[in-house]
Structures are given as structure tokens and as C-alpha cells.
Design a protein that fits this description.
single chain, alpha/beta, 12-stranded mixed sheet, 7-stranded mixed sheet, binds zinc ion, binds fe (iii) ion
Length: 760
């Protein structure tokens, strides 16, 4: 028995949606309720898993003809024990009414119009209606009307105006309403910005160039994509070389669902996501040989999305094959949104630029979702989802939460809602940091929010921390891993007390060392670090992150110390390199201690011979996961638990066993599998010692499907209640949400007299 909360926004009121949901629930014997909200409806449905899935799918498929769903998000929660299904009156006082709507993928009706030669919008790439089209990425101010969007410069022609003013028309008050006569236009440029073709010729020519292996920068909804024929290894290689992106997987856009099925093994839930109004990138198992291996080297998954604007629909229809559609940016810079800047930055990457004159008000990357234990889990929350708030059951102070450093995002709270910004990116990049500054300043204004408290990370060097300190607001510092587990607690509405498992790459601990393999016992008013991994050094700090072999060496050093020469395996180093590294490890120079599980994965990746140097963050760990997926053995290595000042999980027996196994010739896949199992078992063992029934799993390591699913399985078998991420990313993109929650805890009126929320 599970409870599924479904938030739907769209045109679902006054069209018989509630009675329809009621009848459907009755037919499936589902209990719960439905009520209207200012943006749509909210449903809670309780029943067995299979019925819930059916309910969800039929809510969308069989909905009343006039109902249109602009967005749908789900979260599985603990059952409440509802006895019947009812239609309840909404409590208007609890709701906020102003929302900035996210962008909506082109609806079926608009797609048929642009494909119909008799329609006046035939092949018009900026077609939209009240049920689809740009919102968040064109809106500059409130209230939402044409004058406050980037469509302001386009004057509607007579026909468009008539549609806009006709209450019976699908385009009644559709702010970005446009047609080929009055709306934005396409142009194809060369890398010098010279005009080559306009309107339909631009589209046809772009398709021809893509077909011939050229790279085209395409201005879309929330920024530029770089596109290339995904079947053409040479084209994809050229794109990688020019973009200096060695191996990080590239996202694909498939022409239609049929094609997506051909490329990947997609479940019904994954199909639903692909075809949803949010149209995210779905990570699914690849099953096609048609795609060039260069798209996702040594990676059994593909990130696939479907066309979500009329421009994409037309282009992909003309092509008839999948294209790489990766963010138009350089390295960690933000996705480009402006033509002139795109020419300047991507002039040496793209052969052609397919652009248009509808300005993009703010960037929105493609969102990314992966199914974890049968539920969607957003790994990147951006286009289609941002800035929909998510609700928490208690009143929150007005907080601006500045997030972390990598995969940054910010959050703002009001009442019982947390508004999370779109994914911003790595603040180590100065342009990304600039975008971050802009969003933290403008987004609350757009949402009509006034913050009173700034929440930020303990790490003094994070650009987000510095921005928070400059904000002039009184501040609350929030430990990184506490923020991780509180973000997961919040979205799953977990009750206190619980054990939070926060495993990631890095985060500053309260003791000034680098944490990343943490178990936090969290109660209503306080928390403590209950357990952690044995520490090891990161030789060369940042460089150790890029070179998993350095971590392997550091692990071996902790085990063998003065016996390194005699006992430890050679390793992928020259004699000199090794001596220098051992020297800095011994002396602790530029080699901070860490308890990070992400780094432990890196070290294991090196010891298994999978990866010695990583070309992007998380690569080494991912390859351990993929290797483990190849194996089906049941055995596990065993970590040792030791009572010290806190409970320590010692990896030494695991590393020793890996060395033994490798000597005996056990495959890397089998060893990687045993390592995964050992980690999941270690979580269960710590849980048994902590004696807390509820276990919250967070941090970047739980993007690892095998690790997450194995852990969930073992915890359930042993009678624990595991919770994992659904709408909020497990990675640092979710930190801002946890920061809001902790601020709410320490500044709660109940505790106001005990806790000061002063600076620092
Ligand atoms: Zn439409
Ligand atoms: Zn028009
Ligand atoms: Fe983290």
C-alpha cells in the first residue's frame, strides 16, 4: 500500500476533471481525495502500487476532452489510511496564488497544425496555444501579460488578435500567441553571423547540413543546443573535439516516441515522462547500435528526450533520425541564450547557427530524470519544472537559500512553499557565478518574495556562501550533509526522528574536514553525526578528484604505510610520481582528510583498473556502477564497524579483499558488484545500531541506481523504512532545499528564544 500525491497544473477546472478522477478512483478501488488549487488540482491516491500506476496513466490518457495538463509531478509518500475517495473543498487561505508557470512542451493540437499544409500555421516554428509553449523563459515581470514577456516587441496581426480576444478560442489570452505573419522568425547564419537563409529555407538548410554531418547551434526555448547527427561518429567526434568535452555523455533528441523505444528499453513510466508536458531527458538503458558510440562512451545508458518546441518538431520530422542535442555552452559556463554571444563563444564549435528573434528572458537547461526503485527521480530540475514550488506541511520563515557550489540552485521559501530555481551549474566558472548572482537577485522579485534570512553552506570559499554574506540578510550556516538529508526528508514528509545517510563527493564538515560518507541522527530540535567512514587523504586535493589513481594510492597508504614497497600493488604511476605523491601523503601536504564515499568509489575504480584519470565529475564512480551491472553475483565484501568517538565504517577489509580477488583473477564486474552490495549492507548494519526505523538516503552517490535500489531492498527486508529523492535532486542541486528546512528548524518560533539566527 502506498500513497501517491499528484500535483497537476493546467486547464483542469470547470471541465469535469474532479468527477472524472472520482469515478476512476472508484473503478480502481483507490482511496484519497482530490481538490482544486489555484493552478490546477491536487490529488492524493492510496492503494496498491499497480493500481496507482494505472490511475496515474489513465488520469492522463482518459481525461475529459476539455482538460489540458500543463504539468504533472508525483511523489510517493507513506500511506495515511484513507477510507474512501472524496472531492474536498480547497482551503484558499493556504494557497499562494501567484506562480510563474514553467515552459510547456508543444501540445498535440499545435503539432498537428504545423504539420498540416492547409493550416495557416503550417511549418511555423513558434506556434503555441493556451496549453503549450514558452512561459518561464519569456517572462520578465509580473503580472504575466504580453507586455511583460519578451514577446512584447511583436504586434499581433488581425487574425492572431482575434484568436487572442475570443473566449471560445484555444488561443484566448495566450500571451505568446503568434503566426508566421506577425511573430518571431527563423534565420540561418554562418559562424561569422552572416545571413544565409530565412524562415522555412533556414529550417530546410539546417536539416540538410545536419544530414551531411555538420554541427548546428540551434536556439531553442531555454538556450542554445549544439546538434549533430547522433548516428554519425565523425560528426559527434568533431563536436566533442571542438567543445573540449572528452567523454561526458551527450543528450539525444529522438524524432518521436517510436524512435525513443528503438534507442532504449523504456518502461511505461519512462514513456510517460518522455511524452509529458515537461519533456525531460530520460536516462534509460541503451539497446540500439544505431547511435555512434561517441555519444556516450563506455556508458550503457542514453539520455533521450523528445522534441518540445515546434521548431524541434519540424527539424526532427525533416531529419527522421535522432540528433545529439547538448547544451550550447563551453565547459562549465551557462547555456547560451543570446545570438551574438553564441556566435562569439560557439563560433569555432558550430558550422551553422539556426537562430530566431524571440529573446530568451532566462536560461533553462533540459531537466534530467532517472527511474530509481520504480519512481522518477529528478537529477536535474530545470526546464518544465522550475520554478514550481513544492509544499511542506509546516509554515516556513522567508529564507533565501544559496545552495552549494557544483550543480548549484537556489531556493526561496514563503508560507508552506519552497520555490526552487532552475539548475544553474558549477560556480567555479565565473560566467556561471554571474548568472547565479542574477538569478538570486531577480527570481525572488519575479515571484514576489521578500527574504529575511540567508541560508548558506559552511564552506567559506563557495561562491554561494560569499554571495549570501554579501546579501545583507542575517544568516544561518547549514552543514552540507545535514542539508542533503533534510531536503530528502522534506519532499518525502518524513517524521522525526530518522537516520539520514548522506553520501557524496565533498562537503565541509563541522570539524573543518571534508565529509562525504555520513550518517546523521536527526531529531526535531537537534542532530548528531552518528557514523562515518574511516578517513583517508586526498593527495593534491582538487587533483585527487580528477585522478582516481591518487585516491587508490592514498587508500593503500593507509593500509600498508611503511610496507608500501613490499605489499601494495604497483599502480599506474611512474616511480618518481609515486615517490612525490607518497611524500605529500605522508606529510599531509595539500592532502586533506576525507570520509567521502564518492571518493572511495573513485579509489575502487582505479584499483579495479576501470579508470585512472577522470575527464568529468563522477565519471569514475559511474564506471564502477556500470561494471557492477554486468555482474549478477550475490556475494558482498564486508566493511568493519568500529566504535570510536562515533561509529566508524572501516573500508580496509574491503580494499584488501578487492586486492585478493583481483590477484585471483575475479573480474572487475564481479568485484564492483561485491563492493556495491557491501555498501548497502553497511547502511543496514549502521541502521541496526542506530535503532531508527526511518532512513533517508541523499547525496550524489544515490544517483547510482544499483546502490540506491540494493540499499532500499535490504533496508525493507530488515524492516526499515527507506526514503529517497523524487522531485528534488539527490546531488548538490537539492542542497538549497535542505538549507531552507534547517533554517526553519533553528528559527522556529518555538525555539526562537533559544537560538539566535545572527550572522555566522
Ligand atoms: Zn498548443
Ligand atoms: Zn499573427
Ligand atoms: Fe553534496
Amino acid at each position: 500500500m502506498e500513497r501517491l500525491r499528484i500535483s497537476i497544473h493546467g486547464a483542469v477546472q470547470g471541465v469535469g476533471f474532479r468527477p472524472f478522477a472520482y469515478r476512476l478512483a472508484a473503478a480502481l478501488k483507490i482511496r484519497g481525495w482530490i481538490r482544486n488549487t489555484p493552478q490546477g488540482v491536487l490529488i492524493e491516491a492510496e492503494g496498491p502500487r499497480q493500481e496507482l500506476e494505472q490511475f496515474l496513466s489513465r488520469l492522463q490518457k482518459d481525461r475529459p476532452a476539455l482538460a489540458s495538463i500543463h504539468g504533472l509531478e508525483t511523489v510517493y509518500l507513506d500511506p495515511m489510511g484513507y477510507e474512501a475517495f472524496s472531492i474536498v473543498e480547497s482551503d484558499a487561505s493556504l494557497e499562494s496564488s501567484v506562480w510563474i508557470m514553467p515552459d510547456i512542451a508543444t501540445c498535440g493540437t499545435c503539432v498537428s497544425e504545423i504539420m498540416d499544409p492547409r493550416d495557416r500555421r503550417y511549418r511555423y516554428p513558434f506556434t503555441n496555444c493556451v496549453n503549450c509553449g514558452p512561459r518561464f523563459t519569456i517572462q520578465e515581470g509580473i503580472p504575466y501579460d504580453r507586455g511583460s514577456t519578451t514577446m512584447r516587441a511583436f504586434r499581433m496581426c488581425g487574425e492572431c488578435r482575434a484568436e487572442y480576444e475570443d473566449a471560445g478560442n484555444r488561443r484566448f489570452h495566450t500571451e505568446p500567441n503568434a503566426c508566421g505573419r506577425c511573430g518571431p522568425q527563423l534565420e540561418l547564419w554562418d559562424p561569422a553571423g552572416k545571413f544565409l537563409a530565412g524562415a522555412d529555407q533556414a529550417l530546410e538548410r539546417a536539416a540538410k547540413e545536419l544530414r551531411e554531418g555538420r554541427i548546428v547551434a540551434v536556439k531553442g526555448l531555454g538556450g542554445f543546443h549544439l546538434m549533430a547527427d547522433a548516428r554519425n561518429g565523425q560528426a559527434v567526434r568533431a563536436l566533442r573535439e571542438r567543445k573540449h568535452r572528452e567523454e561526458k555523455p551527450l543528450a539525444l533528441m529522438a524524432p518521436d516516441l517510436e524512435w525513443a523505444r528503438r534507442l532504449c528499453a523504456v518502461s511505461e513510466a519512462e514513456e510517460r515522462l518522455l511524452a509529458s508536458p515537461e519533456a525531460p531527458i530520460v536516462l534509460a538503458r541503451s539497446r540500439s547500435r544505431e547511435i555512434a558510440p561517441e555519444v556516450a562512451p563506455r556508458n550503457p545508458y542514453l539520455g533521450v528526450m523528445l522534441p518540445y518546441t515546434p521548431l524541434h518538431h519540424l527539424l526532427l520530422r525533416d531529419l527522421g533520425f535522432p540528433v545529439v542535442a547538448t547544451s550550447g555552452n563551453l565547459l562549465d559556463a551557462p547555456i547560451l541564450i543570446e545570438e551574438r554571444e553564441a556566435l562569439a563563444k560557439l563560433g569555432s564549435v558550430a558550422d551553422f547557427f539556426l537562430v530566431h528573434n524571440r529573446p530568451i528572458a532566462r536560461h533553462a537547461d533540459d531537466s534530467i530524470v532517472r527511474m530509481i526503485a520504480g519512481r522518477p527521480c529528478l537529477l536535474r530540475r530545470a526546464r518544465g519544472y522550475a520554478p514550481i514550488p513544492f509544499e511542506v506541511p509546516s509554515a516556513l520563515p522567508s529564507v533565501a537559500a544559496f545552495g552549494a557550489q557544483l550543480k548549484s540552485a537556489v531556493a526561496f521559501s514563503r508560507g508552506g512553499e519552497i520555490f526552487v530555481s532552475q539548475h544553474i551549474g558549477d560556480l567555479g566558472n565565473s560566467e556561471t557565478a554571474e548568472t547565479f548572482g542574477m538569478i538570486t537577485e531577480r527570481l525572488p522579485r519575479l515571484l514576489g518574495l521578500q527574504s529575511e534570512i540567508a541560508a548558506y553552506d559552511l564552506h567559506p570559499d563557495y561562491a554561494s556562501t560569499q554571495a549570501a554574506l554579501k546579501s545583507g540578510l542575517r544568516g544561518v550556516r547549514v552543514q552540507h550533509h545535514l542539508a542533503h538529508v533534510l531536503s530528502c526528508m522534506a519532499e518525502n514528509e518524513v517524521e522525526y526522528p530518522f537516520l539520514g545517510v548522506a553520501w557524496d563527493g565533498t562537503g565541509m564538515g563541522t570539524d573543518g574536514t571534508v565529509w562525504g560518507g555520513e550518517f546523521l541522527a536527526v531529531e526535531e530540535t537537534h542532530w548528531k553525526r552518528f557514523a562515518s567512514f574511516r578517513r583517508f587523504r586526498l593527495p593534491g586535493s582538487e587533483r585527487a578528484v580528477r585522478e582516481p589513481r591518487r585516491i587508490a594510492l592514498a587508500l593503500l597508504y593507509e593500509i600498508f604505510r611503511d610496507e608500501m614497497e613490499k605489499q601494495a600493488p604497483e599502480g599506474p604511476f611512474s616511480k618518481e610520481e609515486k615517490e612525490v605523491l607518497l611524500e605529500i601523503i605522508r606529510k599531509g601536504l595539500y592532502s586533506p582528510y576525507t570520509s567521502s564515499v564518492g571518493r572511495l568509489f573513485d579509489g575502487v575504480s582505479s584499483l579495479l583498473g576501470l579508470r585512472q584519470k577522470a575527464s568529468f565529475e563522477g565519471q569514475a564512480a559511474m564506471e564502477v556502477e556500470f561494471a557492477a551491472e554486468e555482474s549478477s553475483i550475490e556475494e558482498a565484501y564486508a566493511f568493519e564497524l568500529r566504535e570510536e568517538e562515533i561509529l566508524r565504517i572501516d573500508w580496509e577489509p574491503v580494499i584488501r579483499a578487492i586486492l585478493e580477488d583481483r590477484k585471483k583473477g575475479l573480474s572487475a564486474a564481479d568485484a564492483a558488484r561485491k563492493f556495491h552490495h557491501a555498501l548497502a549492507e553497511a547502511i543496514a548494519a549502521v541502521c541496526e545500531r542506530a535503532g531508527l526505523a526511518r532512513v533517508v538516503l541523499s547525496g550524489g552517490c544515490f544517483q547510482n541506481k544499483l546502490l540506491a535500489e540494493k540499499t532500499i531492498e535490504i533496508l525493507r527486508r530488515k524492516g526499515f523504512r527507506p526514503y529517497w529523492h523524487q522531485r528534488i535532486p539527490p546531488n548538490d542541486g537539492g542542497i538549497c532545499v535542505g538549507q531552507v528546512m534547517e533554517t526553519s528548524r533553528v528559527c522556529h518560533p518555538k525555539q526562537a528564544e533559544h537560538v539566535s539566527c545572527g550572522p555566522g
